[in-house]
Structure formats: structure tokens, C-alpha cells
Amino acid sequence: MTATGYEPLDTLKPVADDLWIIDGAAVRVMGFPFPTRATVVRLRDGGLWVHSPTPLTEGLRREIEAEGPVAHLIAPNQFHFLYLNAWAAAFPEAAVWLSPGARDRAARSGVTLPEGEVLCGAGPETPWAGQIEQLLIKGSRWHKEVVFHHKASATTILTDLIQAFETEKLPARCRPFVWLNGIDDSDGKTPPLIRWSFRDKNAMAGDLETVIGWGARRVILSHGRWYRRDGTAELERAFRRVLGARAWERALAAQKAGEASRR
Fold first, then answer.
1. Which of 41, 44, 219, 261 could bridge 231 with an S-S bond, Cβ 3.0-4.6 Å?
2. Residue 218 region, left (φ>0) first, then alpha (ψ -120 to 50), else beta?
3. With a threshold of 0.85, does the pTM exceed it?
4. Preceding amide of 192 cis, omega within 30
5. What is the CATH number of domain 12-262?
6. Which strand (E) or helix (H) includes residue 20?
7. Backbone angles phi, psi at 121, to 5 degrees
């Protein structure tokens, strides 16, 4: 197994009460090793909610079962489904929840996902209402990512909307790609390819303002360094370009309104 820099892998790592991460093996995309990370929340009924599952080893399965029954498996965007079938087979009682587009994207890759529900675009699903907020970030032609916020720990959970690769943990040949795309951990943000897919930047900014309004203490990312503190400030920094354009538009609108009222 190739080291990712986030060892130990395939084990529960406590973050807060009833909240863990799992650092998993890297997934190679066009030769680039993406370190992976799952998030696990224990709901009030004792069931476990698993976001973007990573490889399921026998040891990890025993750790998971010791914390509670797996109740929900989450594919938060159309790319994060690689290990969903293995978890669904291991925990057949778990409900499967898919982001819009995940099933079609998996099918194009030759993968048939288990039966499940499509995640709502706005407002939490009933099983975790009042515990985990959720919102589909609108505005993209093809990127359909549902963002979550665990209220008890004030933790926002993202998938690909922010990537923050620690270049020293990457092979030297991969570092220029990270620097050129502006997604090294010194200023982690939305990768350009995903950002450019959001044709409706106003819709994106409106949803991001809602996410920022959740008041994150920390932000867990699927790829790279996650933010253990100052979560809201990190979100504002990472999305500053989109949010800045919206603030500018508001300022212009207010100026025009003020001019019209003085006529």
C-alpha cells in the first residue's frame, strides 16, 4: 500500500463526541493519488451515518460495529461511490443515499449502485432532521454535491468543493498540478474544473452563504488537509472569489437603488 501521509489508514479517528473520520487509501485518477477520507456520525438513535465511505477492511468493520449499527451510507456527489457497494453488502440493513447524478455517473463507469434514495436538495432527510443540516449547492452544469453540517459538533462536511493537498505528502511529479490548480493546502479551494462548471455563480454564492451561516467550528474535507479550527473563516477564505462577486453585485444594486430614490 502506498503511503498517503495520513496514516494510520482504515481506522476510526475521533474528532468530537459521536464524530469520527477515516483516512483511506489513495484513489488514482489519471495517475494522481487522491487521499480519501470518510466521516462517521453517530445519530441520537445510535445508528451510524457514513459519508463518502473509504475501503472497508475487516479491522475497520470490527471498529465500526463496536460503535453502533451502520444505518446510512452517503454518496455525497457523483464521484464518491467507489466503495459504496462493499459497505452496502457488509451492512445490508443500512439505507443508501445518493447525490443527484451519482447513479448515472456510476453506470457510465460500469458500476451498478445499490438501491437507494436521492438526497434532497434543501433541508435534511427525516432520519437525521435536527441533527445534520444538508444542502445541494446549485448552479453547476454537472457537479452535484450535497454539503452537510453536524450541528452538535459544529462540523461542516464537504467532498470536492474544497481540496487542500499537502504537497509534501505527494510524489514530486504531482506537485506542479496542485500548484497550478491552486489547491495546495496553503490556500485550499474549489478546483478550477469544478468551479468553472458553476455557470450560475449567483446561485452558488447564495448556497455557500447558507453553508457559512451554519457557523462551522471545523470543516472536514475528503481530499487533503481538513480544518480543525476556524471553520467559518476557512470557508469564507476558500470561497472568497464567488462570495466577493456577489457582494459587489449587491453593492452596485444598492447604489442604483439609492440613486433612483434621490431622483
1. 219
2. beta
3. yes
4. no
5. 3.60.15.10
6. strand 19-29
7. -75, -35
